[in-house]
Design a protein that fits this description.
78% of the residues lie in helices and 0% in strands. The C terminus is likely disordered. By secondary structure, the protein is an all-alpha fold. The chain is elongated. Helix 1 packs across helix 4. It has eight helices and no strands.
Length: 254
């Protein structure tokens, strides 16, 4: 065997190894990319389901319910292309199609959830943040038109304002019921400040007026509560009385 043939065999062997390594690398990359896509799609499906179930009834509308079903359907169809044998996924897709076919008559069974404490307010805000991320991601991936996504982002901001309104109102009312006008005044004052700081407070004029009225009422209760009763003289009034008595005695003796 000549040296040339040996050289060609060695070069061919090296080339074959490089081709095999490249093919293995490409296959591995393809598997990783499919796994990444599957994980991303599963996460979006989970977000759609979580938001649809956890959104308080006072914030959930048929339009939002329909949007979440439509997004979940599109994502599920993309996932089906990667996992064509999934019977569960196929059944979910059929269920979603049936729901979407109802249009805005889609049933909304979310019960109202009173936002009466800070923990609940944070929980609902987290759901809204998830919705915001879902809408943004759907626009970026082409599942939702940009103009429609912009409209939904605006609605999410309004929903967040409504959460704060309900939260401050509930705090103030609870404080009044517990005969704590000072705490009520603080809650209503925060409500007033929050609404006044909105870029466009016009849609919330009725709520702002209500907060201002409640603030004035709470402030009057605080002043009334702190005012010394006539039958229970304070240390200041006692001191003034003693000073007046001393002054009268001095005038008599002078």
């Amino acid at each position: 065997m000549s040296a040339l043939v040996i050289t060609l065999l060695i070069v061919g062997g090296i080339a074959l190894l490089m081709v095999i390594a490249y093919v293995n690398h490409a296959v591995e990359n393809s598997k990783l990319e499919k796994a990444r896509q599957r994980a991303d799609l599963l996460d979006r499906i989970r977000r759609c389901q979580d938001i649809s179930e956890r959104m308080p009834g006072q914030l959930m509308t048929p339009q939002l319910k329909l949007l979440l079903a439509q997004l979940q359907l599109q994502v599920s169809e993309r996932l089906l292309a990667l996992d064509k044998q999934s019977a569960t996924l196929k059944a979910d897709i059929e269920t979603l199609r049936a729901q979407i076919a109802q249009g805005e008559s889609i049933p909304v069974k979310n019960p109202p959830q009173p936002i009466a404490n800070e923990a609940k307010a944070k929980e609902v805000r987290f759901v809204l943040e998830n919705l915001h991320a879902l809408i943004t991601g759907s626009v970026q991936s082409g599942l939702l038109p940009a103009n429609e996504g912009k409209q939904w982002i605006g609605q999410i901001r309004q929903m967040l304002v409504l959460v704060h309104i309900e939260f401050f109102s509930a705090l103030g009312q609870a404080a009044l019921q517990q005969n704590q006008p000072g705490q009520a005044r603080l809650a209503f004052e925060r409500g007033v400040q929050y609404l006044r700081k909105q870029p466009d407070p016009t849609p919330y004029q009725a709520q702002l007026k209500r907060f201002e009225e409640q603030l004035a009422r709470a402030n009057a209760m605080v002043l009334d509560k702190n005012a010394p009763a006539a039958e229970e003289p304070s240390q200041l009034t006692e001191g003034l009385k003693d000073l007046e008595d001393d002054w009268k005695k001095k005038n008599i003796y002078d």
